[in-house]
């Protein structure tokens, strides 16, 4: 038995994956603002006796405009990719890094893109581990946690593979 991706989920992609940039949020944001302005102008110019226009339409246009402004405001560009984040994380910790993993997340009201990089020391088995948080818009390390690795590897063989457990 081999662990593999089911055929219906395998798209055959091989290569470097590029995370989509947050600046794409500007496109729907501008569209919302333009739509809110057009419909709001039509609602206001229609007058008070219009059948298909009332104050609720104007309030909806204001809400849509505010959502559009937020989209434009929160469109922080992704200037540092996962490779840049891994390099920044290896320089931020005080031990040589072996295995590492990067994950993109968002934080704060503006949904700023943030790389969360988990690093393990290069020794076998790893004796230290750390979590480094990096702002993906500016490339600044804003938090790091380093600790001794609490995982117990003594039950594993010399090659790092577990033997069959006794039950």
Concise summary:
The chain has two domains: 22-73; 82-148, Nuclear Transport Factor 2, Chain: A. The protein has three helices and four strands, in the order H-H-H-E-E-E-E. The protein has helices at 26-46, 55-73, 82-92, and strands at 97-107, 112-121, 128-135, 141-148.
What does this structure look like?
It is built from three helices and four strands; from the N terminus they run H-H-H-E-E-E-E. It has 167 residues and is an alpha+beta fold. The protein has two domains: 22-73; 82-148, Nuclear Transport Factor 2, Chain: A (Roll), CATH 3.10.450. Strands 1-2-3-4 form a four-stranded antiparallel beta sheet, covered by helices on one side. Helix 1 packs antiparallel against helix 2. The longest helix is centred in the N-terminal third of the chain and has 21 residues, at 26-46. The radius of gyration is 25 Å and the shape is elongated. The chain starts with 25 loop residues before the first helix and ends in a 19-residue tail after the last strand.
Fold blueprint:
Layout (H helix, E strand, L loop, with lengths): L25 H21 L8 H19 L8 H11 L4 E11 L4 E10 L6 E8 L5 E8 L19
Antiparallel strand pairs: 1-2, 2-3, 3-4
Helix pairs in contact: 1-2
